[in-house]
Every structure is written in C-alpha cells, then in structure tokens.
Amino acid sequence: MGKLIYAANTSLDGYLEDESGAFDFSVPDEEVHAFWNEHERGIGTSLYGRRMYETMRVWEDDDWLTDQPAVVREYAGIWRDADKVVYSTTLDAVSTARTRIERAFDPEAVRRLKEESTADLSVGGAILGAEAFRHGLVDEIVLLLCPVVVGGGKPALPRGVRADLELLDHRRFTNGAVYVHHAVRSAT
C-alpha cells in the first residue's frame, strides 16, 4: 500500500506563492534539487490540480534541459517515470506521457489508488492538497521551508483542518532552507 505524501516548498511564514503568485523564492539550488530528486524517486503516482500540472509539464520537454546541471536533467527523467493524474474540469487534453485527467476529486478512488499502489503517491498544489487533507487521505507531509518571509499569498497548508503530526525527519541545507517530514497521526 502506498502512502499519500503532500510535499511542497514554502516560505517560512507558510506560503507556496507570494501575493502576486510568484514562487521564485523556492527555486532550488543543486543541493536542494538533489534532495527533491531522492524524494521523488519513491513516488509512483503524482496527483495534480490543473495549475500545478501546467507548471510541472515543462519537465516533459528536453529542449530547455540541454544546458542545465545534471541534477536538473535527472529530475526530468524521474518526473517522466511517474504516473500523473490531473484533476480538472477545464483541461481538454494532457500533453505529457503517463498522464490522465479526472474531472472530479473522488476520495474513495484515491483511497483505492493508495491501496493498490506498490509505491508512494504525492499530491501537489494547495487546492488539491487541501481536498486530500479534508478527506483524511494525507499520510505524510514533506515541507521545505525556504529562508524568506513573503507576508501573504497562497497558504501551503489548508485552513480549517487540524492534523496531529509526528516528526519523522528534518535537515538543514547550506542555503538556509530547512526540510521537515511529518507523519499524520490524525486529522480532523
């Protein structure tokens, strides 16, 4: 059975994006990129909302990768090797391999997907992540706290959901970012 892991880069004050929608504060250096590569190797299926999918689909294209460091090119391969489910009512078609569209988030279907999976699953994006939290589907949280305070924007964690957590791991990076990994003991 796979675990559903909510993973995100966030500002220290808890935002995925600042008030203008920018997330440039979370662009990883090579050390952080290598960390995310290792994390993503264990993911068999990624669940995305439309906006997160549109951000991530850049990894399908090789053209921009030729001048990138090896760690960045490696991530593209890891991303391509995972299955992807995009939840969208507006997206007509997908432009990446191993990807399917679901028109509605069905908690029971996600539970079955977890039960049938031999690898972990990830959920990305604030809106879809919040739905997974609200339905008690998130098993673990992996956050990379970036050394910046942005003062507002899109919250990384859902409002109105309580989750009791157990710290599984943590690490400090040279660039000042801090990784925290928690198991969700209970959520209400």
From TrEMBL:
Pfam families noted in UniProt: RibD_C
Record protein name field: Dihydrofolate reductase family protein
Domain Bacterial bifunctional deaminase-reductase C-terminal: 3-178
Alphabetized InterPro entries for the sequence: DHFR-like_dom_sf, RibDG_C, Riboflavin_Biosynth_HTPR
Membrane-traversing stretches: none
